[in-house]
Write a structure and sequence with these properties.
alpha/beta; globular; 42% helix; 8-stranded mixed β-barrel
C-alpha cells in the first residue's frame, strides 16, 4: 500500500510537467506565426525578385537583331532548309506562308556535305516542294579539306534534278588555315566545273559578302550566278551582279517550327522560271 501511494505522488508531477511543456510549445508557435509573413507576402516577394532580375537582364543583355529586315522592292521570295528545320508541313507552308504579302515561290534544300554525308531530310523536302508546286533547288555544303572530286560525286549521285528545278548550288562558308588560298579556289572551281558538266547548267555559288571579297574576287567566279548571304540590312553593299540574296536567318513561317533562312530573287517570277533547268 505504501508503495502504491508513492507511485501516485511521483506520477502526478510528471503529468503537470508535460502539460506545461505543451503550453510553452504552443505559445512559441503562436509567437512565430505572428512574426512570420504569410504566403501572400512570400508570393509578393517572389514577384518582385523576378521582376528585378528581368530588368537587370534587359539592361545588360546585348540586343538581338531584328527577326528580318525586309528589303523593299522585291516580290519573289523563298527559303532554304535542311534537317535543322525538322519536319516541315509543306502543305501549310504553301497555302499560308507569305512574306510582305507575296507567296513563297522557291525553296532550296541541303542535299549533301563533304564526300559522303547526305542530309537526312533532303529526299522528303525535295519531293514535297515539287508536290506542292514550289520551285525547288538543292545545295552542297563544301568542305575545303576534302577533295572536290569526291564532293562533286557525292552531290551528283544523290541529287536528281528535273526540268523546272533551279540550278545546283555550292555553299562555301569556311577556309581552313592549312589550305592555301590558291588550293581553296581551285577546289571550288573543280566542283563547279564537274557539276556543270553533269547537269549542263552553271551552278549557283553561295557565300557571305565578306568571304567572297576575301577569297573569291577572281573574275572567273563572276561567270556563276551569285547567291549572297548578307543579314539585317535593307540595302546590299556588294556592287557586283547577284541573283539571290539571303537577307535573314530568323524568318518565322507557318509550317516550320523555329527559324528559317529568308531569301529574295533579283528579278521577276518569269525571270526565275527562265533560270530553271530545261528552260534556258
Amino acid at each position: 500500500m505504501a508503495v502504491q501511494k508513492k507511485t501516485k505522488k511521483s506520477a502526478q508531477p510528471r503529468r503537470k510537467k508535460r502539460k506545461v511543456a505543451v503550453k510553452k510549445s504552443n505559445s512559441q508557435v503562436a509567437l512565430l506565426r505572428r512574426w512570420m509573413p504569410g504566403w501572400p507576402t512570400w508570393v509578393g516577394v517572389a514577384i518582385v525578385a523576378v521582376t528585378m532580375w528581368l530588368l537587370v537582364r534587359a539592361l545588360f543583355r546585348t540586343p538581338a537583331p531584328a527577326l528580318s529586315t525586309l528589303p523593299p522592292g522585291y516580290s519573289v521570295h523563298g527559303i532554304d532548309v535542311s534537317h535543322h528545320q525538322g519536319l516541315i508541313d509543306w502543305e501549310l507552308l504553301r497555302n499560308q506562308a507569305a512574306i510582305d504579302g507575296h507567296p513563297l515561290c522557291f525553296a532550296f534544300m541541303k542535299a549533301t556535305e563533304g564526300a559522303d554525308m547526305v542530309d537526312e531530310r533532303f529526299s522528303q523536302n525535295f519531293n514535297a516542294a515539287r508536290q506542292y508546286g514550289i520551285m525547288r533547288g538543292a545545295y552542297h555544303y563544301y568542305r575545303p579539306a576534302t577533295p572536290a572530286r569526291q564532293q562533286a560525286s557525292n552531290f551528283i549521285s544523290h541529287v536528281k534534278l528535273q526540268a523546272g528545278d533551279l540550278p545546283p548550288v555550292l555553299d562555301v562558308e569556311v577556309k581552313p588555315d592549312d589550305v592555301s588560298d590558291e588550293d581553296f579556289r581551285q577546289g571550288i572551281l573543280e566542283w563547279l566545273l564537274r557539276v556543270e558538266q553533269h547537269f549542263k547548267v552553271k551552278p549557283i555559288l553561295y557565300t557571305y559578302h565578306s568571304f567572297r571579297q576575301q577569297y573569291m574576287r577572281d573574275s572567273i567566279f563572276n561567270l556563276y550566278p551569285y547567291w549572297i548571304a548578307h543579314y539585317y540590312v535593307d540595302t546590299l553593299r556588294y556592287q557586283g551582279p547577284w541573283t539571290f540574296w539571303q537577307y535573314s536567318d530568323q524568318g518565322q513561317l507557318p509550317g516550320i517550327k523555329g527559324s528559317v533562312d529568308l531569301n529574295i530573287f533579283n528579278g521577276s517570277f518569269e525571270e526565275l522560271q527562265q533560270l530553271a533547268i530545261g528552260i534556258q
